[in-house]
Structures are given as C-alpha cells and as structure tokens.
Amino acid sequence: MNILGPFLVSTIAGLSTVLGSLVIFFHWKKENINKFITFSLSLSLAIMIGVSITELIPESTFFIITDYRLAKGIFICCLSFLVGIVLIYWLNQKINGKSLLQKDLYKLGILSMLALMLHNLPEGIATFMSAYQDMNLGIKLGVAIMLHNIPEGISIAVPIYYATKNKKNAILKTFISGLAEPLGAFLAFLFLSKYITNTLISIVLLFVAGIMITLSIQKLFPEALKYKENKFIWIGLGVGVGLTIINHFIL
What pTM was computed for the model? Predict the structure, then answer.
C-alpha cells in the first residue's frame, strides 16, 4: 500500500492556506488598509459561496439522492445544510473578540478558521482517496483545492491580524485550519473504504456548505460593507468568481 504520495498531496493542498496568510507581510499605506481588508473579505466570500454552489452542493446532492432516492435524499440534504446554518449562528454567539473596537473582525477570523477546518477535513479525505485510487486524479483535485485554499487563508489571516496586530497569531490560526486536510487524509488511511463512503462525505460537505454560505452572507459581506469601499467589494467579488470558474471548469 503506497500511501506516501496521496498523503503528501493532501498535506500540500491543505497547508496552501498558509500561503494566503503571507499577504499580511505586505506593507500597506494607512489609507489603503481598509481597501485591502474589503477586497480580501469580498474575495473570500465569493470563493466560499462559489465553491459551495458549484462543487459541494451539486455533487453531494447527487450522491445522497442516488443512495436514498429522491424524497429521502432531499430531506437528508436539507437537514445537513440546515444543521450547518444553525451551528454557525450558535458559534457566532459564543465566540468573543480580543477588544471592543476589533471584536467583530477578530470573531470573523475565528469563525472563518472553524468553518474552513470543517471544510478541509472531508476535502482531505476526498483528496487522499482520489490519489490512492488514481494519482493523476488526486493531483488534479489537490491543485484545485490549493487554488481556493489560498484565498481561504486570506479570509482567516487578514481579519485576525488587523484585529490583533499579531502576525504569529494570524499565521498560526491559518496553519491550524490547513492541518485539517492532512488530518482528513490520516482518517482516510485508518478507515479508508471500510467506513468512509461518498454518501458520508457528501453529508459532511453539505453541512459545511451551510456553514460557509451563512458565514459569507451573515458576517463577511456586512463586515466588508462597513469600510465603505464599494469599488473593492466588486473587485474582490469579481476575482473570487473568476477563481471559482477556473477551479470548476478548467482544473
């Protein structure tokens, strides 16, 4: 059993989130900081919603309905998605920020980290299993995941850094989120086809889609609007949609 290659693909794909965190080392003029934060938040929400709509929801729904037939399958899909929505509302009430002035921004970074950890875990399982069966397919999937993990890293690091002014904290939180991907690969190695099925992964991914779409609409977009840099909202959304299209149709 050759597991080194599939595990390496999953690890590289997951830790690519750290590449996104490196943007906090750029030196921005004071008048451009709000523009950069607005762009980053808009980019992140476009990626999160785009990946959910084009990848997670359609593919997961197909597998579940195939296994459980139409009525039961739709019920399971809706329930999985709804649980994700409820969880992010609950987390939003429980997580507190570091200071009164930057509370919302810090909370946003932590919520993004938790949401993306839940997202990366089943991705790690899927990447490992794909590479285990066909290395070329696994590498293709790994590159696609890297493509959207980089802006996801931005969505964690930027809010946390500008709320705390602590680069190490921002990078650490991004790194922890990325570790969920190799953890998923490790779980796939332990259980592989014995317990992990396409249906189980699909239920988890629908749950994650509910989290990411709700987080984007409830937190990311309103936070971006606060900075009153509407031009950079549109630029961020445009780049995010472009990356989503590349990920879906080209890779």
Answer: 0.70
pLDDT (0 to 100) of residue 100: 40
Closest CA to 14 of 127, 169, 110: 127
Cβ atoms of 80 and 203 within 8 Å: the answer is: yes
In sequence order, what are the residues at sequence separation of 6 or more whose Cβ sits closer than 8 angstroms to the Cβ of residue 122? 184, 201, 204, 205, 208
Region class of 69: left (phi > 0), else alpha (psi between -120 and 50), else beta: left
Q: Which pLDDT band, with edges at 50, 70 and 90, does 148 fall under? A: low
Burial 102-139 (b: 16+ CB within 10 A, else e): beebbbbbbbbbbbbbbbbbbbbbbbbbbbbeeeeebb
CA atoms of 68 and 126, how far apart (whole Å) = 21
Which residues, other chains included, contact 1 with Cβ-Cβ below 8 Å and sequence gap of 6+?
A: none
How far is it, in rounded angstroms, from Cα 153 to Cα 52?
A: 17
User: Given pLDDT bands bounded at 50, 70 and 90, which one contains residue 132?
Assistant: confident
pLDDT digits (tens, 9 = 90+) for 226-240: 888 899 999 999 998
Residues 6+ apart with CB under 8 A from 173: 109, 110, 113, 156, 157, 160
Joined tokens for residue 241: 């949609």
Q: Which of 49-63, 99-113, 201-215 has the lowest mean pLDDT?
A: 99-113
d(CA 172, CA 106): 14
